[in-house]
Design brief:
Structural class: alpha+beta
Strand content: 15-25%
Number of strands: 7
Shape: elongated
Number of helices: 4
Helix content: 25-40%
Length: 179
């Protein structure tokens, strides 16, 4: 059968009555496959970015164990956590465990977050580098260093007036607890 416009015979390469020749259909299928592969690649890349989240993890009090001493974390006023630059979170039952871990195992590790529980708001983690620390025999911590954290120097001084003891900054408490 000839084409009424051009008086040409259509090629024998049409597939199963489709209007595209096999060669054009092959290109179409290739492009469809290529687009599908790009979509899959984009989904995988977006999954990897969300999987590498560098943020603190919630502490499951009563079931999570301290990374340093392996005690179960139960005290909401003294818990702490560090998160590496790669996103791995390490949880501690006491601030002194975190500081000792940083001085020992994580001496050369880049950290994204240093967090401690605010004594006045149990379970609320605050930036350890901005917190103040009170060492007082009247405020016992799980590992016996009698160390508690407060959100700022003013809160630390208020607690010192009430409980006595010595107030430290982040740098000073690391020196005080040096292994």
């Amino acid at each position: 059968m000839k084409c009424p416009l051009t008086n040409c015979k259509p090629p024998d390469s049409y597939r199963d009555g489709h209007s595209l020749p096999v060669r054009q259909a092959g290109i179409f299928l290739f492009l469809k496959y290529f687009i599908q592969m790009k979509i899959i690649q984009l989904l995988l890349i977006s999954f990897l970015f969300t999987a590498c989240n560098v943020s603190p993890q919630p502490i499951n009090y009563g079931s999570d164990a301290c990374h340093f001493c392996n005690m179960t974390i139960v005290d909401r006023q003294h818990a702490s956590q560090v998160v590496t630059a790669k996103g791995k979170a390490y949880k501690y039952d006491a601030i002194e465990c975190m500081v000792h871990s940083l001085q020992d195992e994580f001496k050369e590790t880049e950290m994204a977050h240093y967090l401690v529980a605010d004594f006045n708001q149990p379970g609320q983690l605050i930036d350890a580098t901005k917190a103040s620390y009170l060492v007082s025999e009247k405020l016992q911590s799980p590992m016996g260093a009698n160390l508690s954290a407060f959100k700022n120097i003013e809160e630390g001084k208020k607690a010192q007036e009430k409980f006595t003891g010595t107030v430290f900054s982040w740098k000073e408490i690391q020196e005080h607890l040096k292994l």
